[in-house]
């Protein structure tokens, strides 16, 4: 009888162990890939059950991007805890180090990589730094700075007022009109960044106007081309890409990789005009065009959000292009993209 009572007391003392961010990421990926709830639970271990996984994903939502998102689930879980100081970082040393490096222009990922080298035994994830930054603002980034806090969003490269939640955009079903050339079929030389001639492009939009910017970059040399689009049509996108790359020697025009936006559906005309092959990245995989995504962040430093591109002159766009092409690059040992392009191809671009 006493043993039975003791077992009951021990059961009452058991505490539910919440999912960690790493476990939530595994749930998101595996559920999307078709794993059953029991398979996911068995893969997580740590006593996790199919029932707990089911509760975590809110029953059995339809599989797909945006149906269960690990980072959003983590934010909601942390926000639901009471009586605890959230996102304060682990100690004063880490906190002061993080703030100092943010103000020097370091990204949260760079801070997370460098901290253990500068302070042995200390570590912080870039996700914790992002949460720390946005926890300083009321109403999830839409309100005022909390008393005794500091607005550190201005030191982030993108300067987003609030965390960007992925997967809310409706998936575009452009392939109904025919299969698009996939990045999976792109030559391996494009991944290696050793030969010149492999380009990426994207469209930078503004809420203030229908006028847009087209950004194009060459992967091996890092050379940048910018052009103004009068609208978001595929004809305008094709026109700008062809104009900016037509002066590039044909022997160094090999591939162009782009996303699946409607403005990029004139790819066949680009192939014909420039004699190169166009490939499309997978949906929601912007990292497959990482160089171009990074370029867009740099362009935003000159043309921040809410910039009216209709009021930006072509001369100003060329000036920004020149500044980007004459920046020393770490991966080139301090050389600029224009210098690297000249070394590799003998092609000189003048302004």
Number of strands: 5
Number of separate helices: 14
Strand order in the largest sheet:
3-2-1-4-5
Mean pLDDT: 84
Catalogue the unreliable spans.
5-14, 82-86, 167-172
Measured distance between first and last alpha carbons: 90 Å
Helical content (DSSP H or I, runs of 4+): 40-55%
The gross shape turns out to be globular
Q: Oligomeric status of the shown chains?
A: single chain
Task: Give a written overview of the molecule.
- Strands 3-2-1-4-5 form a five-stranded mixed sheet, with helices on both faces.
- The relative contact order is 0.08.
- The chain is an alpha/beta fold.
- The chain has 14 helices and five strands.
Secondary-structure map:
Blueprint: H1 2-13, H2 21-32, H3 37-44, H4 50-56, H5 70-80, H6 92-103, H7 108-118, H8 126-134, H9 188-192, E1 198-206, E2 209-218, E3 224-229, H10 234-245, E4 255-258, H11 267-274, E5 277-280, H12 290-302, H13 314-325, H14 337-345
Parallel strand pairs: 1-4, 4-5
Antiparallel strand pairs: 1-2, 2-3
Keywords, separated by commas or semicolons:
351 residues, alpha/beta, five-stranded mixed beta sheet, 14 helices, 5 strands, 9% strand
What is the structure about, briefly put?
The chain has 351 residues and is of the alpha/beta class. It has 14 helices and 5 strands.
